[in-house]
Design brief:
Blueprint lengths: L3 E4 L5 E4 L9 E5 L6 H18 L3 E6 L3 H10 L5 E4 L4 H5 L3 E6 L2 E6 L2 E5 L5 E5 L7 H10 L1
Parallel strand pairs: 3-4, 4-5
Antiparallel strand pairs: 1-2, 1-5, 3-8, 6-7, 8-9
Length: 146
């Protein structure tokens, strides 16, 4: 089972495996890069709604950024949920969100912004791919409250 270095909601460095989250309904969201406009907006939307979310689920953000980058991102925006570092894209590949992307005609590999609700047994209960940031957290909440 793969291990991932991450920060807990209090900014403490910790090693995690997905098995650590079994038994708990989990929102696992993948984002491209710390401290970019869309990713910051999405993280802050999750942060601002974490109290509504955490009564129902555990919230985890994942990107290829380093722990050092995550720590800065978490502190700068007062993020109150787990951030996992996936520099080798293992988790991103497992969830098929490591994709070829294109910007200004240049092709490159990167994270396709995606969110997954995992059932307590670890299976995918619901997924959103090619997420648009605006209104996304509300969609997730609406699904969880249904």
């Amino acid at each position: 089972m793969s291990k991932y270095l991450g920060l807990d909601k209090n900014g403490q460095e910790q090693e995690y495996t997905l098995a650590d989250f079994k038994g708990t309904r989990t929102v696992l969201y993948f984002y491209p890069k710390d401290n970019t406009s869309g990713c910051t907006q999405e993280a802050c939307d999750f942060r601002d709604n974490v109290n509504r979310l955490t009564t129902k689920v555990l919230l985890i953000g994942v990107s290829p950024d380093s722990i050092k980058s995550h720590k800065s991102f978490q502190e700068k925006h007062n993020l109150n949920f787990i951030l996992l570092s996936d520099p080798e894209h293992k988790l991103a590949e497992e969830y098929k969100v490591w994709k070829e992307k294109s910007m200004y005609g240049r092709k490159y590999m990167g994270i396709e912004r995606s969110t997954f609700v995992l059932a307590p047994d670890g299976s995918v209960e619901k997924e959103w791919r090619k997420v648009k940031v605006k209104g996304h957290v509300d969609e997730v909440l609406k699904y969880l409250e249904a």
